[in-house]
Structures are given as structure tokens and as C-alpha cells.
Design brief:
Radius of gyration: 21 Å
Oligomer: single chain
Largest sheet: 8 strands, parallel, barrel
Structural class: alpha/beta
Order of helices and strands: HHEHEHEHEHEHEEHEEHEHHEEEHE
Number of strands: 14
Number of helices: 12
Strand order of the largest sheet: 1-2-3-4-5-6-10-11
Length: about 425
């Protein structure tokens, strides 16, 4: 679900995580319903699913013991990790892995930060599912109480939990306070305080959880500075002055939409940017094919098309991937198909979008692109005033085309889980 930002063009709309954050809670619900209370029930349910698929369950004693890996080893030597942001209300990770034909290398989860005791339990249950049917977690931390809540004590507690998850066989990429350059979150457009909070977390994670890494992930800046949002920087404030990078007294697309928020190479392990095909023009809702090369042009700040002229934007990939030496992730991506709307059909729209992502030319052009995660949700969206099916595995024909198109440069989770 996206949020109106008042800029009139809609090109900088975000994916709202309020529903996505249900993932962690629903992990627990799915596990408890399927297998009963406790870890034994969860493991039992996974074994039952394996039997249903005609496979013999792997005896726990025969599995290799889990080993924490170093954060540097989370970056594949070649190719890119393929992952998913999955609606666990619709189905568990095991079902998605079965339909995909692979265990996803990355599973995206959301939680508040600092998180509650219940949210910690939900995280632990997510780790159980990922260890059995995936590989690593991309954990999006949302400090809904504001950046002042990110204290050294909270950072140390997080790092200790991450170390436990790592030792249980699940590496974690921490996407902290994503889309900080937007204007719709309590941590938005506060570059100084954001950088301080990010560095506080990074220091603790790097010291105590060597199997976890920090991801910096701004919003794609088409429509920057997203005027009209609840948390936009106001003229006359220190935040406004920090964001006025060309010192002309106004915030416009001529200002650097990323640099004021960058926490530093010593704190950042990955950089990420979510890129969606919402359609050809605002207001969204019409089913429309993506323009050729749209993905690459947006990633490099060269897009000038039906969505508007974004050619003033910085080149995210080359500046923060190659220039700063970081692996680049697409934490979320998908193509809009609104079943109740007119226009092009579902399969051509989605195939045209994943065709751009999967093209061997994409791997050749972007060797630092090391992660692509599909947004696998079917949900209501505010802009469309109705349902959008972002999925690629719910419709058999789309699923078959998608799995057949998966490129050989994608990397997936291991075939067998480890034993914690």
C-alpha cells in the first residue's frame, strides 16, 4: 500500500509496510496452527509438508550443524541472490519454495524497533521457517517511535539477538529505517539524526554479530523531495539546510536526494533500492506494459519517460555500488496488475518487467547487483482504490512462465537445512 506524498506526480510513492509487517506475526500463527505450540510442533509441521510432497523427511541427526558465516561471505562471488517478500497470511515459506522450485536465498521481514517481547518471539519463529526453507533474512527495522529510540542499549540488544540467529544458521541483513529520504515516516528527512542512529546500530552489529550485515536503502527519488508528506523537512530547520545541497534556499529534484543520508562506508555493508513498475503514469490503476529499459534507467538515474523526467537524479548504482564498493540489492520489486482495471493483461505486464530484471544484459551491465527480491503479495492499494496482484506464483500460467525464465545467474538457498 502506498502513501500520498502531495507532490502531484506519484512517481515517488512508497510501498507501505504496515501490512507487510504482519509477516512476523503471521509466521507464528502459521507455525502454531500447522504443528501446535512449541519448536517440536513447528519442526513436525515441516516434516509433514515434506511427506506431502513425496519426499522422505531428513532426520535431524543427519543434518550438518549450523555454522555462523562471516558477513563478507553473504555476497555471492558471482550472480545475485534471489529472494521474496512473501504474504505469509496466504501461505508459508515452504509452499512458496515448492512452487518456485527453489528455496529463496532471502526472505524479507518487517518489525518495529526497538521490538517488543512478542515481536522477538515472532522473529525467532521466522528464523525457524527461513532455516528450513530459505537461507537468510532481510530484516527491515522500523523505528516508529522516532530515531531517538535507537539507543546504544537497544542496539546492543539487537546485536545479541542477531548473533543468536546467526548461530542458529540464519544470516541477517538489517535494512534500518528504509526510505529515509521520503516524507512519510517518523524517521524521514532527518539526515543528521538518521546517520547517527544508523551508525549506532552498525557499530553494535559489526562488533557482536559477524554473521549479520547493515543495508542502507533510500527510496527511489523520482518526485523528490516528496513535498506535502507528514514528516517533510521544513524551511528554517537544520534538517532543511542539510538537504539543500545546492544552497539555493529550496528543496527540489536538483538537490542530491541520497548523499545527505549516507552513513559512511565503514557502517554500510550493502546498499539497496526497491524499484516497482506501477504503470506508465500517475494516477496509477491502468494495467500498462513497462517501457523497455525502465529498470536499468531508474537504477542509474537516467529515466525520462511516461512516469516523468528523472534525469536529474544521481546514478544510484554507479555512485553507491561501484563508487563506494558496495553490493547492490533490489530489496523489493514487482509489476502492477489490477484485476478490476482495464488495459494490458497480467502475463505480458509481469513478463515484460521480470524480463528486464532477468536479462543476461542486466547481469553484465550491473556486476555489483547481488540481490533481487520479488514482492509476492495480492492486496489492496490506495492509489488504485482496489486490489493489486503483484504475485508471480499464484496464477499457474504466470508461475510456469516465471520459473522457466529464472536466469542461471540467480543464487538460491541450500537444498538441505542445517541443524541448530
Amino acid at each position: 500500500m502506498s502513501e500520498e506524498t502531495g507532490n502531484g506526480n506519484g512517481r515517488g510513492k512508497r510501498k507501505d509496510s504496515s501490512e507487510t509487517r504482519q509477516v512476523l506475526v503471521l509466521v507464528g500463527v502459521v507455525a502454531l496452527i500447522a504443528g501446535g505450540i512449541g519448536g517440536a510442533g513447528i519442526i513436525g509441521s515441516l516434516s509433514d509438508k515434506t511427506r506431502e510432497q513425496g519426499q522422505a523427511p531428513q532426520p535431524a541427526a543427519s543434518l550438518a550443524a549450523c555454522q555462523a558465516v562471516d558477513r563478507a561471505d553473504l555476497v555471492p562471488d558471482s550472480g545475485a541472490l534471489f529472494g521474496v517478500n512473501l504474504d505469509l497470511h496466504a501461505r508459508p515459506l515452504a509452499d512458496y519454495a515448492r512452487d518456485l522450485g527453489h528455496k529463496p536465498a532471502v526472505s524479507v521481514s518487517f518489525t518495529g524497533f526497538p521490538y517488543t517481547a512478542q515481536e522477538k518471539i515472532d522473529l525467532q519463529r521466522a528464523v525457524e521457517q527461513i532455516r528450513a526453507n530459505g537461507q537468510m533474512m532481510l530484516l527491515t527495522l522500523e523505528p516508529m517511535g522516532g530515531l531517538s529510540a535507537v539507543t546504544p542499549e537497544a542496539a546492543q540488544a539487537l546485536a545479541a539477538d542477531l548473533a543468536d540467529f546467526n548461530n542458529d544458521g540464519v544470516p541477517v541483513l538489517v535494512r534500518f529505517a528504509h526510505e529515509m529520504n521520503g516524507s512519510w515516516y517518523p524517521w524521514s528527512q532527518q539526515p543528521g539524526r538518521y546517520i547517527e542512529a544508523f551508525r549506532t546500530l552498525a557499530g553494535a552489529v559489526h562488533a557482536k554479530a559477524p554473521g549479520s550485515a547493515m543495508m542502507w536503502a533510500p527510496n527511489y527519488a523520482g518526485g523528490y523531495p516528496f513535498a506535502g508528506g507528514q514528516f517533510e523537512a521544513k524551511p528554517g530547520t537544520p534538517e532543511f539546510a542539510d538537504l539543500d545541497t545546492d544552497s539555493d534556499g529550496a528543496l527540489t529534484m536538483s538537490d542530491d536526494s541520497y548523499a545527505p543520508y549516507y552513513p559512511g562506508d565503514d557502517a554500510v555493508d550493502w546498499v539497496g533500492m526497491s524499484l516497482y513498475h506501477w504503470g506508465a503514469k500517475y494516477p496509477w490503476g491502468e494495467n500498462e506494459l513497462p517501457e523497455p529499459n525502465k529498470f536499468a534507467e531508474q537504477l542509474t538515474g537516467n529515466y525520462n519517460g511516461a512516469n516523468g523526467d528523472d534525469s536529474l537524479l544521481p546514478d544510484f548504482y554507479h555512485v553507491y555500488g561501484e563508487g563506494h564498493g558496495n553490493p547492490v540489492a533490489i530489496p523489493e520489486t514487482a509489476a502492477l496488475f489490477a484485476p478490476a482495471a482495464g488495459g494490458d493483461a497480467e502475463s505480458p505486464i509481469k513478463q515484460a518487467w521480470w524480463g528486464q530484471l532477468f536479462d543476461p544484459a542486466t547481469a553484465a551491465q550491473f556486476p555489483n547487483l547481488k540481490m533481487v527480491n520479488w514482492f509476492e503479495w495480492d492486496k489492496g492499494e490506495v492509489e488504485v482504490k482496489g486490489r493489486v496482484d503483484w504475485t508471480v506464483t499464484n496464477t499457474p500460467a504466470v508461475r510456469d512462465a516465471f520459473t522457466a525464465a529464472l536466469p542461471d545467474w540467480f543464487r538460491y538457498g541450500p537444498p538441505e537445512p542445517c541443524r541448530p
